[in-house]
Amino acid sequence: MIPRNLLVFFVCLFAAACRDGAADGTPAAKAVADANGMCAEHGLLEAVCTKCNPKLVPIFQAKGDWCAEHGFPESFCPTCHPERGGMPAIDVTPEEAPLNGTKIVLRTTEAVRAAGIEVAEASPPGEARLQLLATITYDALRRAEVNARTPGIVRELLVDVGTRVSKGTPLFRIESAELGATQASMRAARSRMSVAESARKRIESLLEKGMAADKDLLEAQLELDAAKAELATAESALGLVEIEDGSANLYMLLAPIDGSVIRHSAPAGRMVDAEETLCEIVDVSTMWAEVDVPESELARVGAGQSALITVEALPGREFAGTIDYVAPEVDPRTRTAKARVRLANGDGALRANMFARALITLAPNGTSALVPRDAVQRANDVDLVFLRLAPDRYEARQVKTGARRGDLVEVLEGLAPGVLVATRGSFLLKTEVLKGSIGSGCCEVE
What we know:
Elements: H1 4-24, H2 27-33, E1 38-39, E2 44-45, H3 57-63, E3 103-106, H4 109-115, E4 119-121, E5 129-138, E6 143-147, E7 152-157, E8 164-165, E9 170-175, H5 177-208, H6 214-237, E10 241-243, E11 250-254, E12 259-264, E13 271-272, E14 277-282, E15 286-294, E16 306-311, E17 319-326, E18 336-344, E19 355-361, E20 369-372, E21 377-379, E22 382-390, E23 393-405, E24 408-413, E25 420-422, H7 426-433, E26 443-445
Antiparallel strand pairs: 1-2, 3-23, 3-26, 4-25, 5-15, 5-19, 6-14, 7-9, 7-13, 8-12, 9-11, 10-11, 12-14, 15-18, 16-17, 16-19, 17-18, 20-24, 21-22, 22-23, 23-24
Helix pairs in contact: 1-2, 1-3, 1-4, 5-6
């Protein structure tokens, strides 16, 4: 009969061996990590397969549960006891995560020493950054689509794709039968406005002499306002055009902004409508990076935060900018919202539709902390850390984790900076608090 203290010591050594294996990627680490799966090769629950995890052999031998013929634990040897299905008598799978505040007490000094639990202090997060995917797009405020002001025929294309133009540069020469009618309307509107202004002045003079009524002045004002509106309509129809001298139906369409012509769709001789886009002009001295922000990070990303944009096609270059807008809606398919970063692009290196990465400096979160990666354990989709209350006493704490920074994990909720958390050996503590687990038995759970 194996003394209980010695058995406890062996089991604690098993837990420590699994823990050490997790650090170096041995098969034991894989078995522990895949505790819910079966070992397809040997027909046992993978967490307790002694072929995959030879460090388990002395544990079961010490318990007297060993089939020397087949090299498996006797109680669920797949050859001797096929009815067990390779499953031990106890459940080794975690059923539910422990509640916050669950205490784990190591029973003996030997157990404390054998567990080999190490601790680290949760540190303040410092400057948190988030790396996200982005796409380079045109600055919508520096982009223009040019259309004909009146229907007509393109007689001459004056610019080509790639041409740099300034505001007011002629783009197309267009012949339009409606141009003459529009010019006539504009001349008639000017004449009408001139007559209406003279009539209004005459009525004002007569009103001062008592020879006109207020109603007459009101009617004169209405006529003047109608004439002004008619003139404004005619001038708007001829906006951004330059009518050739001596021609009643030829005009040149002018560029509305400075920039480069990136496309046109109106060769000479083509009939065009007033609603049709003839060419597109873009000023690429400024571009936008549209960043896909996950729904879970929206609370920490906002206008005014700095962002560093890198493009894979431009190695070694970084483009600094500031978030000036975050969309008020989330895409139902990707569960992300668009954030916009304005970028200077003096040399034109950034091009629309380039894929990029954005490194965003996040808003500080006063309750967050950084802990080593091996301090965080996962049970039933819940992240756990274990706070050290005393060398032989620990407390389970459910937390919400965020970004990973090398060997550190950001804890967003449930943990404050400055507390001590178990790192190496925290897996042993997890096994003790999971209901029905194959815990080492060297601890008590309160």
